[in-house]
Specification:
about 0% strand, mainly alpha, Four Helix Bundle (Hemerythrin (Met), subunit A), single chain
């Protein structure tokens, strides 16, 4: 694995941060079209950075840090904008942020212990897709009704995905 910072995949990961912040600002200001454009661009960089790293044989240690960090910053910023605009419950985004902090802290502890930090798994990727779908849908067309806990079916699916992926990372870390 390479240790270079300035690679195309890493720049794509880094670009996700300002794209997410711009999408968040447009959401709060009520500018739907630019919000959608920036949100979709941010989501695409999440796919493109990994794809590009594999195709260009430029997977790097920096990329294993930058990609998840950009994801966490993007979800926190966009989630905060959704909560401020009343489109998702505040507790939901706090849960997402706390989960991300827990996973990041666990990864740091594992790395400091000299072990290899676990890569994202299918549960984490599925959770990210469902959470992204829920957040974008709430930004564009907030669900008018709720089933439980202030969430609709897609929100409950995102919550379940968060629980399953968190459990899978905790179990994986404990097995190390």
């Amino acid at each position: 694995m390479k240790d270079r910072l300035l690679t195309l995949p890493n720049l794509l990961s880094l670009s996700r941060i300002p794209l997410s912040l711009a999408a968040s600002a447009f959401l709060v200001s009520g500018n739907t079209l630019p919000m959608i454009v920036f949100a979709v661009a941010a989501i695409l960089t999440d796919w493109l950075d990994g794809f590009t790293a594999r195709k260009m044989d430029s997977v790097s240690r920096w990329g294993t840090i930058l990609d998840p960090a950009a994801d966490k910053i993007g979800f926190a910023a966009f989630g905060a904008a959704l909560a401020v605009s009343g489109r998702i419950p505040v507790w939901f985004i706090l849960l997402v942020v706390c989960r991300d902090v827990l996973i990041a802290a666990g990864g740091l502890a594992i790395a400091r212990g000299g072990a290899r930090v676990p890569r994202s798994n299918v549960w984490g990727k599925a959770s990210t897709v469902i959470l992204s779908a829920y957040m974008v849908r709430q930004a564009v067309y907030p669900a008018p009704s709720t089933i439980a806990l202030g969430l609709d079916a897609l929100g409950l699916a995102a919550l379940a995905g968060l629980a399953v992926s968190t459990a899978s990372y905790v179990v994986g870390a404990l097995r190390r």
